Amino acid sequence: MRRGWKMALSGGLRCCRRVLSWVPVLVIVLVVLWSYYAYVFELCLVTVLSPAEKVIYLIFYHAIFVFFTWTYWKSIFTLPQQPSQKFHLSYTDKERYENEERPEIQKQMLIDMAKKLPVYTRTGSGAVRFCDRCHLIKPDRCHHCSVCAMCVLKMDHHCPWVNNCIGFSNYKFFLQFLAYSVLYCLYIATTVFSYFIKYWRGELPSVRSKFHVLFLLFVACMFFVSLVILFGYHCWLVSRNKTTLEAFCTPVFTSGPEKNGFNLGFIKNIQQVFGDKKKFWLIPIGSSPGDGHSFPMRSMNESQNPLLANEEPWEDNEDDNRDYAEGTSSLAVETET
């Protein structure tokens, strides 16, 4: 009886948590809907007097608004991609692993299983990365999301503002959402500013629209500052071919830690997110190369093209450059063997 109550309580808490997780998304949606009303009706249709100016403002606004809402929708409803079945332990291997009480034997079992898979990253102690909740060997750059309760390919972070885990399947959409959000706020702020000044100087009658115009500028500027910082940070991550998790915790390969192990160069790093067809870069359509289970590494490119080994990596100082060269050289030897 007591156990049944505990299960019911646990289920109720999970249900409440799922409902509350949509609150940040609801807040964003309400703010966007209000901004649409304030800009289209209170600014363009009521405050702006010139017909030509109204048309120009509305055309550009709706063009940006469509891409802004489109990318936000894709960021929210594109499901995180999970590892394929071949990374999961078979029923027999799972039984053997769980019944084995000696940690060193369990570690060796995972090493033997990982030899059949394209995995090159390890834990900090050098062990095979294994998820004991999903019962699978984690592919490179894959991490378990405690909020989504699943392993996510190329996981970047869990974002409460889209109530979704950002990873291989939707990172492009998330980055586009940030870009169009910045553009959306910037466009509103620049077009509203002149009317804000007019209201401030008393050149326009103090009507209901005054509140919407003044508050619209304030909200646009506030969101612009925070979004441009976040967008700039993710642009830096893309230029280095890093995820947020990898920026805070250096990936460990079979040869040891290597913070630039996935850095292929500026152009190729961008193509790892947006694809090699530039016509799709601004459109929220899936174009990221690969399947999310394995990724090209700098060491492999160097082994195939020795000229890349002479490229100077992007580091903060000369000491880091020397560490990087030593790390990638050892990693190249490891992958070739």
TrEMBL record:
Leader sequence segment: none
Bilayer topology: Multi-pass membrane protein
Entry's Gene Ontology molecular function annotations: protein-cysteine S-palmitoyltransferase activity
Chain ranges passing through the membrane: 20-39, 55-73, 177-199, 211-233
Domain Palmitoyltransferase DHHC: 129-247
Keywords noted in UniProt: Acyltransferase, Membrane, Transferase, Transmembrane, Transmembrane helix
GO terms classed as biological process: protein localization to membrane; protein targeting to Golgi apparatus
EC numbers, comma separated: 2.3.1.225
Coiled-coil portions: none
Biased composition (Acidic residues): 312-321
Main location: membrane
Enzyme class: transferase
UniProt region (Disordered), positions on chain: 293-337
Entry-linked Pfam families: DHHC
InterPro entries in UniProt: Palmitoyltrfase_DHHC, PFA4/ZDH16/20/ERF2-like
The keyword Ion transport belongs to this UniProt entry's keyword annotation: no
Reaction(s) this enzyme catalyzes, per UniProt: L-cysteinyl-[protein] + hexadecanoyl-CoA = S-hexadecanoyl-L-cysteinyl-[protein] + CoA
Subcellular location: Membrane
Ranges of biased composition (kind: Polar residues): 327-337
Family affiliation: Belongs to the DHHC palmitoyltransferase family.
Domain remark in the UniProt entry: The DHHC domain is required for palmitoyltransferase activity.
Protein name from the UniProt record: Palmitoyltransferase
Native source species: Vicugna pacos
